[in-house]
Structure formats: structure tokens, C-alpha cells
């Protein structure tokens, strides 16, 4: 991966990252070895994914054997929305670092702008008194302590970013949001860029596995448009002798974003990082820009958090 996104701290984040949402256990362990072998150095995990231990185990093997140095890696993890209380931030990062077997992370994110609470019936609500600005103050402390080399946010809207920017000592270095061909989020990205906030694109392939995940959590699958069979994507893929997935990822990289595709299939792990030996021309870029539909193509609508959308601050 020879393109980086430079954080306001000066640190370089490899533009193509390895996403681990919905990946666990042995399949993640095997795939992460594949990913490191294939050249991935930017790994994205989160407390809520319950896979930090597996990530930590694999990283330790690579670091102990001398195949990698810590400074070669860019590791991101995130504060769980269930632990989003000012007095839990320090402890949560400490727990993540223990699981990852690291002394610092390169980027620590507020995973979600709302604190999620679970009632006795198992319903998820947004905590009415908890304010992400108060959480951010504790995130800043983690930055000052050196345990997080940079701090950022995820799933923050324009309104929330503007409010946070007015109330911070350290500006967020990154916002991690859903971005793909069908939901390109130009306004949100523009605001981030103007304020020096780098953007990581999650679900960059349109999260094709999300329905399996929804079904597993007892939810109805949803109809999603498939980026990888889109005629325009197929045509551009043919022109460059690449796959539509590679075109979708290269498009995001050329927009200056850092996509983090998830795959536990070894051939796709390799395919997804093999995007640095060609480039899309302006015509290709414009054709893909024209595929943007907007928020109705959002894949991750957080259905699993039952009553969360009733929270007054719930908006994207
Ligand atoms: P798998 O893990 O079996 O490879 P996203 O990153 O947008 O959430 O997409 C992840 C989903 O897309 C997963 O279901 C993953 O399946 C699948 N996927 C990842 N890379 C590719 C690819 N290159 N071609 C087709 N499907 C892919």
C-alpha cells in the first residue's frame, strides 16, 4: 500500500486498511495473517467487535518474530458506545490495549456519538444526559497521555462535528463514516477536509455481508444495491483489467479517503489491496461520481439498536 493519508499529527495512515467488523475467531486469525502477508499495515478494530484479542494475538506473533516493527503498523480501535461515560474512557482504552497487547494505538475513536444503554428487556436506548463533548475531553486526555497517538470520531454528522469543533482543545484527526459508490457523502467529507479531519470509509464495498449479520441478529434482511454488479463499475473494471471491487476501492483512495474493506476470504484480501498499480482517469472518476444516490443507500442503519432512533440526537 503505497499511498497514505496524513493525519494532522503528521502520522501517515496507509490509505487502504483492513476492516474487521463482523470478523471473529479463527477466520479472522487466518485472514489477518493473510492480510499482513499481502502488505496491509493499517488494521481497524473496535471494542464492540469483540475481536481485539484475536487481532492482538496475530500482531504479537508478527512483532515477536521480527517480521514487523510496531512503527510499521497503524492500529485503530474505538470506544464502545456502551462504555461511553467520562469515567470509563481511560479504563476502556486500557482494556483495549491489553487485549491488543500494545502500549499505544495509532488512532482511538469515539465509535458512536450517542451512549447506548440496555434495559432489562434487552432494548437499546440512547442515554438522554450523556454528551459526546464530555467524552471528547477524556479522549483528549488519552491523546495527551500518549496511549492514543491520535484521536477521532465515527458516525458523526455535520452538525455534531461543528459543535465538537467549537468545544475542543484537540481537533478530531479522523471521522470514520460509511462511504461507498452509492453513498458518497460529499458535504460531510467536505466539512471534514476543510477542518483537517481525515476520513476513513467503512463499508466501502456496500457491506455485502450485512444481511447475513442482520439475519444472525434476528432482523429482516434489506434490499441493497450491489456495487459489484453495477454496469458502470463492470465497464470501468474491464477497461483497467481489474475487478469492480478494486475500482470501488481505488475510487475512494483517489478521493483522498482511506477505505477499510472487510474480507476473510484470502483471495479477496489480496484482491482488495492490489489497487496501487493503476489509476482511474478523470472520466472514470466522473462516471463513478455520477453513481452517487445518497443516504437512502446507507447500509448500516443500526437496526440492531432497537430504540436508539428515538434519541433526540439520533441523526445522520
Ligand atoms: P468475505 O469476507 O467473504 O470476502 P464491506 O467492507 O463493504 O463491509 O464489504 C464486506 C463484504 O464484502 C463481506 O461480505 C466480504 O465477504 C465481501 N467482500 C470483500 N471483498 C470482496 C471482493 N473483493 N469481492 C467480492 N466481495 C467482497
TrEMBL record:
Gene3D superfamilies: NADP-dependent oxidoreductase domain. GO terms for molecular function: oxidoreductase activity. Substrate binds at residue 111. Keywords: NADP, Oxidoreductase. Residues 16-292 form the NADP-dependent oxidoreductase domain. The record marks 78 as: Lowers pKa of active site Tyr. Pfam families: Aldo_ket_red. The active site is at residue 49. InterPro entries: AKR, Aldo/ket_reductase_CS, NAD(P)_OxRdtase_dom_sf, NADP_OxRdtase_dom. It comes from the Eukaryota. SUPFAM superfamilies: NAD(P)-linked oxidoreductase. The keyword Oxidoreductase applies. Belongs to the aldo/keto reductase family. PANTHER family: ALDO/KETO REDUCTASE. This is Aldo/keto reductase family. It comes from Popillia japonica.
